[in-house]
Amino acid sequence: MPKVLISAKLEQEGVQLLRAVPGIEVIETEPLNGDALVEALRGVQGLIVRSETKVKADILEKTPDLKVIGRAGTGYDNIDAKTAAARGIAVLIAPGGNTVTTAEHTLALMFALARHIPQANEKLHKGEFDRKLIGVELTGKTLGVLGLGNIGAVVAHRALGLRMKVIGYDPVIDAERAGEIGVDLMPLEDVIRQADFLTVHTPMLPETKHIVGKRAFEICKPGMRLINCARGGLVDEAALLEALNSGRVAGAALDVFEKEPPGADHPLVQHPRVVCTPHLGASTSDAQTKVAEIICRNVGNFLTGKEYVGRVN
Ligand code: NAD
Ligand code: MLT
């Protein structure tokens, strides 16, 4: 009988779908790592994780029974999908399950950044009625979107509804698709040069590491505002700090960090012009139910020889 280890806190709507598959045994644990994960995967064919469990080569070398890893989300940089493929292990993600939720979080952060909402809230909680917190309008401003996949496209669509001008960079999509989304596709540096607000929605890959780095902050518009709801390593944090301190960048909104949790004394977390959230991009009950259902259904299908979607390796 195939066993599936869920090494994450997963919505029960999804878990129940998997439990209902005849012949599958489900084991739920808190997020495991290292030796504890290897031990728990003895005799187990399926593994479901979120981002807390790291499934790199050191783990995959010691899990001979594993056949499929399901990522209850989109970004799978916590899984070594290449090594998994070489060892005959399929990696599945939950495409689309958290797209709208993460796009909405991006927009929430963009508004918060434009109007200093967290700072104003914090001051008022302390009894300070500060009406000098002057913001900027979004209407008429240019939003640069790096990565026009599922989330980038929804962000662009919503931003067009706010009457922003939307430009973007994505080496994979063509002008026809960009036209459907309503985005002017242009080279990376042109997007960075023209954006009033810049938002990142690429996967974390060797070629996207620090896609917004020192060079970006040299060429960007003075007063540009940055939003990162994708992955910490896409933005060079040291370069961002320098750009904020020099005034080149007016503000940043960060949901993700190079190291998570970043620590309370992290200079970006403490920066007065940074708005931040603790990797909450996908955290709505709606999205968590959807990703749990998608991944449990597909891992179940994979293990019982039925059609499945979301394979990335
Ligand atoms: P997606 O695969 O649909 O889209 C990614 C897009 O990036 C694709 O269109 C791809 O062509 C493009 N891309 C690839 N390389 C690029 C490059 N070098 N430059 C520019 N674009 C490039 O993925 P998605 O669902 O839109 O999610 C994007 C990322 O957001 C995920 O990989 C994940 O890391 C992150 N994410 C974060 C949260 C969160 O909680 N904060 C939630 C969901 C997703
Ligand atoms: C994702 O890539 O889907 C997000 O980071 C959300 C999550 O970690 O669950």
The biggest beta sheet is recorded as: 7 strands, parallel
Q: Over all CA atoms, what is the radius of gyration?
A: 21 Å
Count of separate DSSP helical elements: 12
Q: Oligomeric state of the chains?
A: single chain
Portion of residues within helices: 25-40%
N-to-C span: 25 Å
**CATH architecture type of the largest domain:** 3-Layer(aba) Sandwich
Mean of residue pLDDT values: 98
CATH topology of the largest domain: Rossmann fold
Q: Uncertain regions: pLDDT < 50 for 5+ in a row?
A: none
In the CATH scheme, the class of the largest domain would be Alpha Beta
| Sheet with most strands: strand arrangement | 8-7-6-9-10-11-12
Secondary-structure map:
Blueprint: E1 3-7, H1 12-19, E2 25-29, H2 34-40, E3 46-49, H3 57-60, E4 68-71, H4 81-86, E5 90-92, H5 99-115, H6 117-125, E6 142-146, H7 150-161, E7 165-169, H8 175-181, E8 184-185, H9 188-194, E9 197-200, H10 214-219, E10 224-228, H11 237-246, E11 249-254, E12 274-276, H12 285-303
Parallel strand pairs: 1-2, 1-3, 3-4, 4-5, 6-7, 6-9, 7-8, 9-10, 10-11, 11-12
Helix pairs in contact: 1-12, 5-7
The structure holds nicotinamide-adenine-dinucleotide and D-malate.
Q: Features of this protein?
A:
binds nicotinamide-adenine-dinucleotide; binds D-malate; 2 domains; single chain; alpha/beta; 12 strands; 5-stranded parallel beta sheet; 7-stranded parallel beta sheet; Rossmann fold; 313 residues
Folded structure, characterized:
- The protein is an alpha/beta fold and 313 residues long.
- It has two domains: 3-97 and 285-303, NAD(P)-binding Rossmann-like Domain (Rossmann fold); 99-276, NAD(P)-binding Rossmann-like Domain (Rossmann fold), CATH 3.40.50.
- 36% of the residues lie in helices and 16% in strands.
- The chain contains twelve helices and twelve strands.
- The chain has helices spanning 12-19, 34-40, 57-60, 81-86, 99-115, 117-125, 150-161, 175-181, 188-194, 214-219, 237-246, 285-303, and strands at residues 3-7, 25-29, 46-49, 68-71, 90-92, 142-146, 165-169, 184-185, 197-200, 224-228, 249-254, 274-276.
- The chain has a seven-stranded parallel beta sheet, with helices on both faces.
- Bound molecules: nicotinamide-adenine-dinucleotide (NAD) and D-malate.
- D-malate binds at residues 50-51, 73-75, 98, 281-282.
